[in-house]
Amino acid sequence: MKRLLAAVGAHPAAIELEEADEEVAAAAAGGTGLPTLFVGGAAVGGLEGLMSLHLRGRLVPMLLEAGAVRC
């Protein structure tokens, strides 16, 4: 996930959770499990969700809208 995001110009922040916080984070991610990527506060999912966005050409526009990359 980090490599793909870096390749499109984004530099993600990784947040490691304590075991007790993992359930809360997984619920906030819509049950997609962990690790989960959030872009602009929206849960994208894990690697499969990220790759799906990328292959459909929607990843970079989403990152641009969130201010995570610049033109």
UniProtKB/TrEMBL annotation:
The listed locations are: Cytoplasm
Give the coiled coil ranges. Answer: none
Q: What is its main location?
A: cytoplasm
Q: Which UniProt keywords apply?
A: Cytoplasm, Redox-active center
Q: Which InterPro entries match?
A: GlrX-like_pln_2, Thioredoxin-like_sf
**UniProt entry tagged with the keyword Hydrolase:** no
**Gene Ontology CC annotation, any one:** cytoplasm
Tell me which domain of life the UniProt entry assigns to the organism this sequence originates from. Answer: Eukaryota
Keyword Cytoplasm assigned to the entry: answer is yes
Q: What's this protein's family per the entry?
A: Belongs to the glutaredoxin family. CC-type subfamily.
Q: Which PANTHER family match?
A: GLUTAREDOXIN
Protein name per its UniProtKB record: GLutaRedoXin
Q: Give the organism the record lists.
A: Musa troglodytarum (fe'i banana)
